[in-house]
Specification:
Layout: E1 4-7, H1 13-24, E2 28-33, H2 36-48, E3 54-57, H3 63-66, E4 76-79, H4 94-122, E5 126-129, H5 148-161
Parallel strand pairs: 1-2, 1-4, 2-3, 4-5
Amino acid sequence: MGKTIFITGAGSGLAKGAAIGLAKKGHRVIAPVEIAPQVTSLREAAKAEGVELEVFKMDITNPQDLAQMLDYDFDIFVANAAINEGGPLGEVPMANFRKLFEVNVFSTLETAQIAAQKFVEKGRGKIIFMSSMAGIMLRRMLDLILPPSTRLRRLRKRCKKS
């Protein structure tokens, strides 16, 4: 029997492919996207693959959009929505870093809290946090936005090579 899976940020990348792939395997997939044009795009991609997805706009930083999560019952929650920013520290505006942390940390945690509360009520459920390959791949311009633990892991690897 298939599961009901809620995947944030399903409008592009890994989550888009996962949403379609999981639907092909018989799961019911709830696939919110960040912006309205992605709704049509994802619906068309799903139709081309012969699967059904429940697609709607849900910007995880928008409280009205986020409230839509409460309308759904699901077994698995995949926290995938994220943005990326890179560049030399002196050239990237602080507003960009604030937005990055708002989306990738605080709003992601807020979606996970909503899912966790739903799972506690029903007595079961899984939460999966997706992560970018930037966390394990060496890219100088991204170092400044990575969590301290990732930066420390990279530093240890560099020291071992020396």
